[in-house]
Amino acid sequence: MSEDVLLGKLRLVEDMLRKVVVPGFDVDVVSSGVVSRLRISSDGRKLVVYLSFLSSDPGCSFCKFVNHTLWTTIARNIRDTLISSSLFDEVLVVDEFTKAPLT
């Protein structure tokens, strides 16, 4: 796939992600810095979305649950938005630091 087509797909992805809001906040996942980078395969069929957030957990068990729930929700919303576009055969949402899948 040509570089121009791949860049066009990435621009579409960024536009779609600007509509995914961080739950409880009035900001999208791109503007907030939650999405740290995107990576697209050379054939344009696979996309990886890297999310960045502090990896340290607060000492409170309830806070850990809230953080886990929030990040799981964000990752699911991103994946659902991108999969529904039919632009990609596979969309992975991963933690920028651990490279672990979040969905």
Task: Outline the structure in words.
By secondary structure, this protein is α+β, with helices and mostly antiparallel strands. It has a single domain, classed as GMP Synthetase, Chain A, domain 3, CATH 3.30.300. Helices cover 38% and strands 17% of the residues. It is built from 2 helices and 3 strands; from the N terminus they run H-E-E-H-E. Strands 1-2-3 form a 3-stranded mixed sheet, covered by helices on one side. Strand 2, helix 2 and strand 3 form a beta-alpha-beta unit. The longest helix is centred in the last third of the chain and has 24 residues. The radius of gyration is 14 Å and the shape is globular.
Features:
alpha+beta; three-stranded mixed beta sheet; 2 helices; 17% strand; 103 residues; single chain; GMP Synthetase, Chain A, domain 3
